[in-house]
Amino acid sequence: MKAISSLDNQIIKDAVWLKKASERKERGLILIDGAREIAAALEADWIIKTLFYCPELARAVNNFFGLTEDKIIEVSKKILEKISYKENPDGFLAVALAKDKELEKVKLSQKPLIVVLEAVEKPGNLGAIIRTAYAAGVDAIIINDSQTDIYNPNVIRASEGYIFKENLVMASREETIEWLKKNKIKTFAAATDGNEEYTKADLNGPMAIILGSEAEGLGQKWLKAADTRIKIPMRAGMDSLNVSVAAAVILFEAKRQRSLER
Fold first, then answer.
1. Ranges assigned E (strand) in the chain
2. I need a surface site. Which of 11, 85, 225, 261 has the fewest CB within 10 A?
3. pLDDT band for position 174 (50/70/90)?
């Protein structure tokens, strides 16, 4: 195991640069901040390049996730706090290879459940949707016109590491619409002017829930392309929910309906 004590070390400088989305994209690397998230990535066969470990912050020394010593670097508290996103890091931070997934490589179940997100902006919302989607048994999440880096450490943290276990794909609207039609997946657009309440819609078959941005909702292309517009009935004076909350409400209704079919 190597040890680094200086902030001027080039390895540390490179790790700090990875806090920028442009650097992560250019280098094809991501930061995974925290032991739970690192473990989730390794369980899903992601490749860890470097593991930074701070004995002063780590509550307990495990087997370093089974990584070989040449990948482990011991650092001081000052250094780990410099490269970490968390206010109170737990003593572990990893640099991993990013993964680019393609629509055609997504493996679908017999009755797939898909989430499509258009222009979602806030990392916390994206992470929360990923976590919820995993809990609901979603086959894949397709992101159109992303307004945030999907591997932003705040997305990873909000997803509690489930981002590594979920099929997450970047694609254009046109590619997504074509792929869904090709796979005979019915589309349900969540919209405030939906003509059918979500609990009354038939969410049993192969389907995709389409959700828009926090500020603008779904764009006209998706509203026109969707097979059905669904809405969540709300108290008078309210016209929308947080996108992650809306996703959870509809996804678990779909899960409920599907469980009744067994």
1. 2-4, 29-33, 48-53, 72-75, 92-97, 113-118, 140-144, 168-170, 186-190, 196-197, 207-211, 228-231
2. 261
3. very high
